């Protein structure tokens, strides 16, 4: 049986990954976090080597925390593929990035991102942002049931 993860963290910066995991542990927000270190790994997590194949490769997470500045496949392309696939389009995606560029913000929302957050520089602010993200997306948000239709 495939284990259900709560968060897929897509980030290539080891320091940011560690800070995010530390904040999640500190506030006991999420126990099951999967890490993808580039955009290609994120897409592989969902689609395997055959994008668009009949079923997702893994059980979908409750939320995806996505950095935009990624190697191999950038975050905007990952977002585009996630939001255009019927298999993954309902999964909430939160961009958690250092980019304040207006074009990145506009394009992210155009592609269907659920939230766009610029990573705070200060650890305490960053930890608080991660805590609030976890509380909202894992505890308060009501996602549709798998296979539900409007």
Strand and helix order: EHEHEHEHEH
What is the CATH homologous superfamily assignment?
Response regulator
CATH architecture: 3-Layer(aba) Sandwich
- How many domains make up the 3D coordinates? 1
How many strands, what sense, and barrel or not for the largest sheet?
5 strands, parallel
Biggest sheet: strand arrangement: 2-1-3-4-5
What is the general shape?
globular
Query: What is the CATH T-level topology?
Result: Rossmann fold
Uncertain parts = none
SS-derived structural category: alpha/beta
Q: Which band does the percent of strand residues land in? A: 5-15%
The first-level CATH class name? Alpha Beta
How many E strands?
5
Subunit organisation of the chains: single chain
Instruction: Tell me the span between the first and last alpha carbons.
Output: 29 Å
Radius of gyration (CA) equals 15 Å
Number of helices: 5
The whole-number mean of residue pLDDT values reads 86
Q: Overview of this structure, please?
A:
With 150 residues, the protein is α/β, with parallel strands linked by helices. The chain has one domain: Rossmann fold (3-Layer(aba) Sandwich), CATH 3.40.50. The protein has five helices and five strands, in the order βαβαβαβαβα. The chain has a five-stranded parallel sheet with strand order 2-1-3-4-5. Helix 1 links the parallel strand 1 and strand 2. The chain is globular and about 40 Å long. The two termini are 29 Å apart.
